Amino acid sequence: MKILVLGSGGREHAIIRALQRDPDVREIHAAPGNAGIALDVPVHPVDATDATDATVLAGELEADLVVIGPEAPLAAGVSDALHQAGFTVFGPSKAAAELEASKSFAKDVMAQAGVPTAAARTCATAAEAEAALDEFGAPYVVKDDGLAAGKGVVVTADRAEALAHARSCFGVGGTVVIEEFLDGPEVSLFVISDGTNAIPLVPAQDFKRIGDGDSGPNTGGMGAYTPLDWLPDGFTEEVMQRVARPVIATMADRGTPFAGVLYCGLALTSRGLKVIEFNVRFGDPETQAVLARLRSPLGRFLMDAATGCLARVPELQWSDEYAVDVVVAAAGYPEAPVKGGALTGVEAAEALEGVSVLHAGTGTGPDGGLVASGGRVLAVVGLGEDLAQARTSAYAGVAEISLAGSQHRTDIGLLAERGEIVVPGAAGTEGKVR
Questions:
Q1: pTM value?
Q2: Residue 413 has pLDDT above 80, yes or no
Q3: What mean pLDDT do residues 135-142 have?
Q4: Where are the alpha helices (DSSP H) in 30-138?
């Protein structure tokens, strides 16, 4: 197969690295890619959200499969344009991508499907927002109803801060979804669907806030790890039965079948499993850890999903190793990331046993060296026989990398390593759930 991957982030680099391990994949291209991706495969200066340019490129390459990584091209209808031009595409239609593009749409689908989720109100005015904040009480959860690259959510005990976030969304013509707060640990689960059938990957946990101990503002994600030994037995099948399959069936009933990645953001609360949000693509940074453990051929898997053939896919094979990825972000991220700083030590990090580096916001400077070109610059992935060893490997890699003013969390997977994560009301959490 010849595969074109659209996107420029760490998620796309992780996908490309996994595709390189598939013997059926003979050629991989990326658009627009980044400086690190360009070291692995040919890259093309095409805007991934431009349906016309993406279609022309796919034709020039004679791509057998186009994999769309980020949410913005999906919401823009790039998948639809490629389909109409006759290409096989992994990524949902624009109509199906509303599951991520509109949180109120996702709430409507969950209500129809009977999926457990937080009670919520969609608000278009300050008065509506104030009423919803008073209804649910603190901690307050306010979400931009549209796409916000993972940074449109405010969770705070400060009512004034919550209302200010809502007002900022109204000020640019948007709406917000205000929800009840969900207690308990969060889990991410990717489910691959061909519109009818669905296959889960392994659960992961990510870290959304900028600072240790979940301090500071939300980001696109500062790290992740997998597997999660603390999960209750049968967790993944419960998600499939109560969340993924009902949503996929409901989307088909609505005439907008969902084919691609259904990212299920979940909370294990004192009142049971609840959905926090859906995304319609691989999550970043969870993908970096999850795909590091995948041993089944990814290219064939994605092709079968794109062509409605998941029913024939054998059980996925996973490494027994643990994976931890730590994001190195630029100074000033997430509010105002500093770009252009020299980035060194990547080769030294990748020379360490069990360590790989996946690029996100990287470019090439005037001297040909690597520079930071975005907020989240790269993710260092560590593998190990247990979580402690994987964490040690990842942080050893981070220590080799130099970027002036860079920031990273030091506690990715730490509570899990210490056995300090508790699922409210759960029993039988002993043993490893993979």
A1: 0.91
A2: yes
A3: 92
A4: 37-40, 51-61, 71-75, 78-84, 98-101, 103-113, 126-136
